[in-house]
Amino acid sequence: MPTFDGYSTSREVVDAFASQVQGRTIVITGAGQPSIGSSMATTLAHASPAHIIIASRTAAKVEPVLDQIRKINPVVKATFVQIDLGDHESVRSAANEILVATGSKIGLLINSAGNMAIKEYEVDKQGIETQFSANHVGHFLLTNLLMPALLVAAAEDQERGARIVNLTSLGYRISPVIFNDYNFSDGKTYDHWTAYGQAKTANILFAYGITARLKARGVAAFAAHPGSNIDTNLGSHLSMEDYGAIPAIAKRNTGTDFEFDEPRFKTFDQIGATPLAAALDPSFSSKGHSYVANSQVEEPDEIARDPRNVEKLWKLSEKLVGQEFSY
Hints:
Layout: H1 10-16, E1 25-29, H2 36-45, E2 51-56, H3 59-72, E3 77-82, H4 88-102, E4 108-111, H5 130-156, E5 162-167, H6 192-214, E6 219-225, H7 240-244, H8 246-254, H9 273-280, E7 291-293, E8 296-298, H10 307-321
Parallel strand pairs: 1-2, 1-4, 2-3, 4-5, 5-6, 6-7
Antiparallel strand pairs: 7-8
Helix pairs in contact: 1-9, 2-3, 4-5, 5-6, 5-10, 6-10
């Protein structure tokens, strides 16, 4: 079986695991152009999935990606579903639309939408801090609403099962989830990097929570750190000075030293490789951890894998979306 690293490309990963893609229904959030999601969506099209659904806020940003998918492989059905992850009514409506469009069977869900280090304190429609909302809480709700369709796919295709991939970041090391003050005292104690770290830690804890509950039923979840790329515009509002502040903030929040990983920057062709490996590599299910970096499973820091934090996050998330999910 091939192995990949921080320099592998998205296409190399998809070509190696094409049999994991063929004929499957795939849902990707975000994926407006240019983004990690759009890179993954167009690359996956080469391996002939049955259907790629992109759930995103703005149709105009997604239509060029859908057109590209159809151009790459006219056999692949490509669909847009409107969603605002910061509006739980919108998430519920989108989930219903996706379930109808997929015939309630989804082999792969990639939670790719998100934001990064928003400098001013903002809240979503429910009053939840916007980074925690867009990166984690909205995806927690969407994922669980789509779970019946993932379980159907896993039961019908036991060899491949079903997978969920959350996009996280090495930035999780900036902060744990602040369970007693996730909303930063309504903004009074807000720090944009701490909020980002909290959200990215939540992405990993959520993956552990899904796997603990559903691995025995064929659904595995991973949180993938794709690396950094300047083409996606995710951090276009940030300066090098902003990035330079991270180590001190991380030290203050966690007591540990923060170091950027290598390669420091990846090309647009490389940026989707790690989440695609998390989605497709069959060997990952037996590795015992839910964090993937540079296309390999790794053990994350304790703040992102402690079983007590996994369960605390699940309970907090249920409270924030107003619904319990037990399996």
